[in-house]
Automatic annotation (TrEMBL), chain A:
Residues 232-356, 675-793 form the ABC3 transporter permease C-terminal domain. It comes from Ruegeria haliotis. It is a multi-pass membrane protein. It is found in: Cell membrane. This is ABC transporter permease. Residues 451-637 form the MacB-like periplasmic core domain. The chain crosses the membrane at residues 230-253, 273-304, 329-353, 374-392, 398-423, 444-466, 673-694, 723-744, 764-786. The keyword Membrane applies. InterPro entries: ABC3_permease_C, MacB_PCD, Membrane_comp_ABC_pdt. Signal peptide: none annotated.
From TrEMBL, chain B:
Keywords: ATP-binding, Nucleotide-binding, Transport. Pfam families: ABC_tran (PF00005). It comes from the Bacteria. InterPro entries: AAA+_ATPase, ABC_transporter-like_ATP-bd, ABC_transporter-like_CS, ABC_transpr_LolD-like, MacB-like_ATP-bd, P-loop_NTPase. SMART domains: AAA. One of its GO terms (molecular function) is ATP binding. Residues 3-215 form the ABC transporter domain. Transmembrane segments: none annotated. This is ABC transporter ATP-binding protein.
Length: 804, 215
């Protein structure tokens, strides 16, 4: 009996192949976009974990020289003085067209490296002496091993699962040779179990900075907001894909009502039918989900390099940029496909289970009525209000995302009501019979198209919202860079003495020398970097203050006040007029708050005299140099040569800005790509709706054709209808997108990153987006319009046939 | 001569002939009943006369215009200006009100006369239903709207395909009376497809179609 029912149910798909394809594509798109984002997140997080495991980063302090590499002599001095430190040399190494990160560690000083232990615990453990003696060994991940084994000039390869697939770990001696940097050291890891009595670092190596685990950036935590943003986008794409699934499943159920009535009349229970249809949907979800996983894998592979570059540039977070297939990711994707399909089909399935045996058939019953439209509208309004109430009650990032979700879903549910109202108003202005018919027909078509239009609304709002946020951020960021990077050159000397020499030599040749001194302090909100600056018009004129008391600079330079960055202000809720406590005995009035994009830590600025009082003896090794910009490049080269400074110790303002902007642009490549993809999915949703509604169109079009409109005219009107609906939806998406942008800028950014951005509007971008939308709508309607154009009169005449 | 059908041939896709050398004529103001069994080709002949479909051989001339050279757009113009149609299934435009349906064809043809439109609405008993949508009307009311839509354009030729086929006896008589009286008043010619000998008897002429031939 079951076999016969299954055969009957499945026969529907044989005769409705387009619908089947649409359903599978809908599931595949939803799963694909979601899985791609999840794969990117999972890959990035795996990279952080592996990177942390390499040297147990985040657990030990490190010693670094802000001016560049650490001389070998310093390492020797520290070891002789009893400091248990291990030297690390890092660099980029190109093999077989790939740029890899080569990391050399002094394995005599630090033999307990997790990667080495992992290799030693393998079935074929290496002899520890082999790693330390010539030619040494290269430890790499199993993915990377084949590539390196092809290179004849390299030392033998050992594999370990504790390394990311773009890292080569070896002894520092081997690294020196491969990187051609004899005697160079990038940083020193301060190992545990130090002697009880140690000479202070300031005596042995005053130029080195000790960076504690608290100051080292926890990449996983720091990048959480970035991943949360990506996940939100993935979820939006998933929701847009589910609109397609909801629409096609609903139509398929409506088309099968007659068959289901017949099966029930023949004695099949509704319970058995519902279970079999559930099984059928699960099977379709698994097929669509598998297609989606393939799509997601390739999409993630295409997007991951940009995400990796963003995370490296913005947060210094190590991500390999290469995808590997994780079984958990595939299983989660399939589970999501099944969950999404059943969620999207739940309503149709419930209605089917409630269908009386003798209920009238027909597609009209599937379409929503006016009262249902009203109910959906009320639900939409309630969701918007609910989101606002939750955010106002609880606050925080999660509540911010609930607010966003409520706004978007609520607006989508309100769309049919708003469109219906807009169309009825426009219909009143229609003069000719054709115009009257077009508007009336458009209103009649709304229920069938509303799901696709909701998807379009969400995609457009996301485009406008995220686009406005990114463009506002860009505009603010560029202006902020101009304000902050006012000096033409930034110099870091190796020590105080050299700092004085550089300063003396430069003074007669430049407009101004602005010393920059800083010290790291502890604050209740985390590390606080306190900077001392001299009084110079450049600060008074340019510093990007977002809130200030009167005479802000006079008070600060007189040593009576402090300026703090926005992150610290928001984190500690400190604003002009409040006190910033440096120690139990010392506090200063806050005179102003300045924007400080991209910096995760708290920062404050005082006068140079005040800095010397708070933390005496801070060296002056860094300077900002004001000079003729045309001479900056030449001066930078001269400084490097004359004072033997490494390249990174003399930085030009232009290069710094270019690098900052490059990182910025990379940051939003992924969101832009997801924006375009979501718009594409929405366009596809319109196409599938138009195609699936096609059979219902003929009875509406045929009378108009019979009364004297030819097929070419009707075809053009089909295109026009789609374009007008898309244009109306775009008009409604604009305010929603701007609200979304406002929430992103004033709620999500503040909660996620600690800074609030001013909102700018970009009407030209809206025009471009509107044109893109109209183009997408035209492309989506092109196939149905072409069908209309080529429709044989005999098919139209069937509508009038008495036996129909 | 308003309508001339001369040795027209038409086959279904696959080659099965529906009409074989069918000829007939219809003068201005004349009424003609086309009878025949189901599948005899009467609806097909009506569709060809209405310029809704093309034929394989012969010629149809409507108000002096031969149909065979016309393309899709040309046939549409002819339908708009010279003929009106009434179908068994009413085929009103569901998204338009009764008022908009009534005036739709006449406005397409560019000859809508609001006074005549009001007169028609009153005569057809639709004055109180002008703001309603077709789905809220009974079958008889819908067919009266369809007749009103057809006559509002003051056509030279009215083509009706089983116009009372979906109506009960009372509604059927009512609709037919209204249609015939309007045809007489406007001087239009009528070609009406019907199974009913009783209805056919009320028209000026009767032609019987069987096996694709006129008998």
């Amino acid at each position: 009996m079951t076999a016969a029912i299954v055969q009957a149910l499945l026969s529907h798909w044989r005769t409705h192949r387009l619908l089947l394809a649409t359903l599978l594509i809908g599931i595949a798109l939803a799963t694909g976009l979601w899985s791609a984002v999840q794969a990117i997140n999972a890959e990035a997080r795996a990279s952080y974990a592996q990177a942390n495991a390499q040297l147990a980063l985040g657990q030990f302090d490190e010693l670094r020289d802000p001016a560049g590499d650490i001389p070998l002599s310093r390492y020797v001095d520290l070891r002789r003085a009893g400091w248990q430190v291990a030297a690390v040399l890092e660099g980029s190494y190109r093999v077989g067209g790939r740029n890899l990160r080569l990391m050399g560690v002094d394995m005599v000083a630090y033999p307990a490296l997790p990667a080495v232990i992992d290799a030693e615990q393998s079935t074929n453990p290496p002899d520890p002496a082999d790693i330390l003696t010539a030619p040494g060994r290269l430890l790499v991940s199993p993915d990377l091993a084949p590539l390196l084994r092809e290179q004849n000039a390299l030392p033998p390869i050992l594999t370990t699962t504790a390394l990311p697939s773009d890292v080569i770990l070896t002894d520092i001696g081997v690294a020196e040779t491969l990187l051609n940097k004899p005697g160079a050291i990038s940083r020193l890891v301060v190992l545990p179990d130090q002697p009880h009595v140690l000479p202070p670092l300031s005596e042995i190596a005053p130029e080195l900075e000790r960076v504690g685990p608290a100051s080292q950036i926890d990449t996983a935590q720091l990048t959480d907001s970035f991943h949360l943003n990506l996940s939100a986008f993935g979820l939006l794409s998933f929701a847009v894909g589910l609109f397609i699934v909801h629409g096609t499943v609903g139509l398929a159920f409506a088309q099968r009502r007659g068959m289901i009535r017949t099966l029930r009349a023949l004695g099949v229970s509704i319970r058995r039918l519902v279970w079999l249809i559930l099984a059928e949907l699960t099977l379709l979800a698994l097929i669509g989900g598998a297609l989606g996983l393939v799509l997601g894998f390739f999409l993630a592979g295409a997007l991951l390099p940009d995400v990796a570059a963003t995370l490296r540039g913005l947060y210094g977070a190590p991500v390999t940029g290469q995808m590997s297939l994780q079984p958990e990711w595939a299983l989660a994707g399939l589970a999501m496909a099944v969950f999404g399909t059943l969620l999207a089909s739940g309503h149709a399935l419930w209605r089917l289970s409630q269908l009386p045996l003798l209920a009238g058939p027909g597609l009209q019953a599937w379409r929503s009525s006016g009262s249902r439209r009203g109910f959906t509208g009320i639900a939409g309004f309630a969701l918007i209000v609910g989101g606002v109430v939750i955010y106002l009650s609880f606050g925080g990032l999660i509540a911010g995302f609930i607010l966003l979700g409520g706004l978007l879903t609520g607006a989508a549910l309100l769309l049919p009501l708003l469109l219906s109202f807009a169309i009825s108003q426009l219909a009143r202005t229609a003069q000719g019979p054709v115009a009257q018919w077009v508007w009336a027909d458009m209103r009649a078509q709304l229920p069938g198209l509303s799901l696709a239009l909701m998807a379009l609304l969400l995609a457009l709002a996301a485009n406008i919202g995220v686009g406005t946020m990114v463009s506002s951020f860009r505009l603010t960021f560029v202006g902020w860079l101009d304000q902050r990077l006012t000096s033409e050159l930034y110099v870091t000397a190796t020590d105080n003495q050299q700092g004085r020499e550089v300063s003396d030599w430069l003074r007669p040749q430049v407009d101004a020398i602005l010393p920059i001194r800083s010290v790291e302090l502890e604050h209740e909100t985390g590390p606080l970097f306190l900077y001392g600056v001299v009084d110079d018009p450049v600060y008074r004129q340019n510093w990007p203050l977002i809130a200030s008391a009167s005479d802000v600079w006079d008070k600060t330079m007189a040593g009576n006040a402090v300026l703090i960055n926005e992150q610290l202000a928001r984190r500690a809720n400190l604003w002009p007029g409040d006190d910033l406590q440096f120690s139990p005995a010392r506090a200063l009035k806050i005179a102003g708050v300045y924007s400080d994009y991209g910096n995760p830590t708290g920062q404050a600025i005082v006068s140079m005299q005040q800095l010397n009082l708070i933390s005496p003896g801070v060296e002056t090794r860094r300077f900002g140099i004001r000079m003729d910009p045309g001479r900056a490049a030449e001066m930078a080269q001269t400084l490097r040569t004359r004072f033997d400074l490494p390249r990174q110790a003399v930085v030009q303002q232009a290069a710094m800005k270019a690098q900052s902007l490059a990182i910025f642009e990379k940051t939003f490549v992924v969101t832009s790509a997801l924006n375009v993809l979501t718009l594409g999915v929405a366009g596809f949703a319109i196409l599938t709706s138009l195609l699936t509604l096609w059979t219902q169109r003929l009875p509406q079009i045929a009378p108009v054709w019979a009364l004297g409109l030819n097929r070419a005219q009707l075809s053009r009107l089909e295109l026009l209808r789609s374009v007008l609906l898309a244009a109306l939806t775009a008009c409604l998406a604009l305010p929603l997108g701007l609200v979304l942008a406002w929430v992103l800028l004033t709620v999500i950014n503040v909660q996620a990153f600690g800074w609030r951005l001013p909102m700018y509007v970009f009407p030209w971008d809206w025009i471009v987006l509107l044109l893109l939308t109209l183009l997408a709508a035209m492309i989506a309607a092109a196939l149905p319009a072409l069908r209309m154009l080529r429709l044989p009169p005999a098919d139209l005449l069937k509508v009038f046939a008495n036996e129909r | 001569m308003l309508l001339s059908i001369d040795k027209v041939q038409k086959s279904y896709p696959g080659g099965r002939p529906v009409l074989r050398d069918v000829s007939l004529t219809l003068d201005h103001g004349q009424t003609l009943a086309l009878t025949g069994e189901s599948g005899s080709g009467k609806s097909t002949l009506l569709h060809l006369a209405a310029a809704l479909d093309s034929f394989d051989g012969g010629e149809i001339t409507l108000d002096g215009t031969p149909l065979s050279p016309l393309d899709d757009a040309g046939r549409a113009v002819l339908r708009r200006r010279s003929v009106s149609l009434v179908f068994q299934q009413f085929n009103l435009i569901p998204s338009l009100t009764v008022d908009q349906n009534l005036s739709f064809h006449a406005r397409l043809a560019g000859n809508y006369d609001p006074t005549w439109g009001s007169h028609l609405a009153e005569r057809l008993g639709l004055s109180d239903l002008l703001g309603s949508f077709p789905e809220t009307l009974s079958g008889g009311q819908q067919q009266r709207v369809a007749i009103g839509r057809a006559m509002a354009a003051r056509p030279k030729l009215l083509l009706a395909d089983e116009p009372t086929g979906n109506l009960d006896e009372t509604a059927s008589a009512n609709v037919l009376d209204l249609m015939l009286s309007l045809v007489v008043d406007t001087g239009a010619a009528l070609l009406l497809v019907t199974h009913s000998q009783e209805i056919a008897a009320r028209l000026d002429r009767r032609v019987h179609l069987a096996g694709g031939h006129i008998q």
